[in-house]
Amino acid sequence: MNTENLFQSATEVAQGLERVDYIPNSKITTAVFLADRLKKPVLIEGPAGTGKTELAKSVAKAVEARLIRLQCYEGLDESKALYEWNYKKQLLRIQAQNLVNDKDDETWKELEQDIFSEEFLLTRPLLEAIVSEDRTVLLIDEVDRIEIETEALLLEILSDFQVSIPELGTLVAKRLPLVFLTSNNSRELSEALKRRCLFLHIDYPDMEREKSIIKRRVPEVEGALLNQIGEFVRSIRQMDLKKRPSVSESIDWAKTLITLGIHSLDLEVATDTISVLLKYQSDIDTALKELAVNL
Amino acid sequence: MDLLTEFVTELRDYGLPISLGESIDAHEALILELIDDRELLREALALTLVKNISHRSAFDSLFDTYFALNSQVSDLDDELQNHNEDSKTSESLSNIAKSSKFAGGGGSLSQEELIEMLFMALLKGQTDKLNQLAALSVSMFAGIEPGRPVGGVYYLYRTLRNLDLENLQIKLKNALKSNTTSADSRLNERFTNDEATIRIEKFKKIVEAEIKKRLVDDRGRKAMAKTLKKPLLEDIDVMRASKQEMLELQQAIIPLSRKLASRLANKRKHLRQGRLNWPATIRKSMAMGGSLAEPIFKKPKISKPDIILLADLSGSVASFARFTLQLVYALSSQFSKIRSFAFIDGIDEITDYFNLETDPVKSFYKINTEANIMWLDGHSDYGHALSEFAKKWPEAVTVKSSVLILGDARSNYHAPQLEVLQKMSKTAKHVYWLNPEPKAYWNSGDSIIKEYSPYCDEVLEVRTLKQLEQFVNILD
Fold it and tell me: Is B233 a domain residue?
């Protein structure tokens, strides 16, 4: 098993991520650094649109690793997550056997060994990440969407980086993948899963970090406007809303303002464009009402 | 026992479920020795030990106790060499801080001068300076008495009161405003107000940490951890929650309801399969040469329960009833119908107050002022309320209904009118009684829960979020 360290220090993580336009905070860099050192998966939780999936993608880019992604959904099972026997190919193999020589030249036993070999195995994302020769980052996205029973599928991989196949034996990782799981917290994950992971909660960024993120993504935003965007979004997030604006929404908003040719934000512009930030009518009403109040 | 193990033990004592493996992870993270900064250490330990975000505040509080900051006071001398702008007070600053560590009054530095320095530091955003000033303020105003087993809330109050932060915040806001030039004065007003609030709040945190640190120095971290021990959010007794805790509980309702809703929906989906769907099964078998290998079932009809809520809104249990009502309404997508009734000694339907008003505070205000839930004297009378309910809304309870009664069954020695509940339980699918009183107090004094319980499917003690969550799971 190859256990190289990808990063020498947490600072190196930060630099690596920034190089690929992901602005981390100290929490995030510590998590990635520890994940690499302790060889543990990271379970990322937090509100939608705060860059959970993006983090895994960026880490992959930063260390030039191959990204293998398993998108979770209800009804996901072994054959789609781990592996499946290619039964069509197995059938063909058996039929070919019959064609070539009518009588038992080869015994059934040998044939059986043959058709349950790696050649007839269809690797699905989890197994793929294990057997891959390259450096890999495995992203298990929205893990809270699978049923609690299906979670058990993940446990062997997460703790031992191996997959047991009854007919074939245990396949152990050739190169340890860096594993990220994301969750929108729509249900409580099992203790067994949580215990095996480092737990990283990514919240909405503070103003400075948000400003640097926007600056990276929308370079056209000038200093004064950038400050105003940061301050405005921070102000909105403090209100009592159903769904507070995420980072991706504030990026969209910044793009909108640039497209409209705005250099300085005033209340009228903010009112006209607030629907980019807020997606519920009741939230828009609340925000506008609050904004109209003179402090 | 090393510090980290002790820390983990204390965390477990706080109620955090930390396994041996997680403790080992934390130790391994520490051994890396590449973590030199206190905040990084905090994050590293949180990553390995805290797997539930609602436990984070308990973790932080204990972390501050166990891994306290280095004493600001002793650092002052070095710091002051670097920050020598305020020449008129700098020489005396550290001396004052040292001499008056536990004393009440200040030395040569007056209160006004301190506030002025604080204002400048806040305006310029100098963190080092703020740390020093926090230490100094605590020395001057907190009046910490060694050996007293307190959590420091009072000291914090005393310190902050003397600094007159409200005034400082306004001053800070105005100063910030004159610094910025923005096109829109209304937005500018809002932004500077936000900024001032945040800076002041940050300073309060620093003062709090400073007080905590001194209390730890004084009494040792173990004793301090014990004093600071608070129940986790899910274990807070709703009836005894402080204002702050109540607020946190309110905020927990929405995410909890989302979680419960998906769990309920999931449970219904997997509960049972419908009847065999012949046509589909045969169709499917075509692909396999006609062998009926994979039977297909009809989707089961999902029957959502119909909820009737009867909530005692009298003073003693009102907070619990409100809380439960809010949770049930947040879950309304999971029920086919919810009708709610509030009672004290009279009873009235309150369903509409929730449908019309999205803000729960307003709905409760309206219920209290408009709904007709009082009859004679405003003391709970379960018997009268129940019989009125049966008389006024005889159609409400049907065979599909699950009836939830929220209350402590303290009926002030009025007649229980058991036959009403008996009749109700015969009609309804389920009758649950949720009692917010500790089980030990049941049937003492005027509590008549024992008499009602034969007619309920279950009588449950529900005082915390965790218990409420468990209850919702059995609902159907």
Answer: no
Amino acid identity of residue A173, one-letter, is: A
User: Residue B43: its chain A contacts at CB < 8 A?
Assistant: 26-27, 30-31
Measured between beta carbons, which residues in chain A are less than 8 angstroms from residue B44?
30, 34
SS (H, E, C) B125-173: CCHHHHHHHHHHHHHHHHCCCCCCCCCCHHHHHHHHHHHCHHHHHHHHH
Report d(CA A226, CA B351) in Å as an integer.
Answer: 47
Name which of B54, B42, B45, B47 is nearest B16 in CA terms.
Answer: B54
User: Over the stretch B131-165, which tens digit does the pLDDT of each residue have?
Assistant: 888 888 888 888 887 777 777 788 888 888 888 88
The predicted model gives B66-79 an average pLDDT of: 53
- Of B135, B155, B153, nearest in space to B144 by CA: B155
Residues B94, B189, single domain; the answer is yes
Q: Tell me, what amino acid is at A255?
A: K
Percent of residues, chain B, with pLDDT higher than 70 = 85
The model's pTM is 0.76
Sort out which chain A residues have CB atoms less than 8 A from B187's CB and list them: 228, 231-232, 265-267, 270
Q: Are the beta carbons of A188 and B182 separated by less than 8 Å?
A: no
What's the pLDDT band for B347 if we cut at 50, 70, 90? confident
Q: Which two tokens stand for residue A212?
A: 């640097």
Q: How far apart are CA A208 and CA A229, in angstroms?
A: 11
Confidence of residue B49 (pLDDT cuts 50, 70, 90): very high
In a domain, B242, yes or no: no
CA dihedral B82, B85, B89, B93 (to 10 degrees): -20
- B264 vs A: CB within 8 A: no
Any CB–CB contact under 8 A between B282 and chain A?
no
Residue range B187-220, pLDDT digits in tens: 888 888 888 888 998 898 888 888 888 888 888 7
- Interface contact B25, partner A, CB < 8 A: yes
**What is the token pair recorded at B252?**
């927990």
pLDDT score of B51 more than 80: yes
Return the pLDDT at B35.
60
Asked if B30 and B48 count as a contact pair (C-beta separation under 8 A), the reply is no
Chain A residues with CB-CB distance to B21 below 8 A? 195
Q: Which of A61-75, B99-113, B392-406, B431-445 comes out lowest in average pLDDT?
A: B99-113
**Are B283 and B307 in a shared domain?**
no
Radius of gyration of chain B (CA): 30
Q: What does the CA dihedral B322, B327, B328, B329 come to, rounded to 10 degrees? A: 90
Domain tally for chain B? 4
Indicate the residue among B48, B67, B86 that finishes a domain. B67
For residue B467, pLDDT over 90 is answered with no
What ipTM describes this predicted complex? 0.85
Residue A293 DSSP code:
S
Structural domain span for residue B292: 275-301
* Residue B50 domain flag: yes
Residues B349 and B419 placed together within one structural domain of the fold: yes
- Give the mean pLDDT of chain B: 79
Distance of alpha carbon B382 from alpha carbon B386, whole angstroms? 6
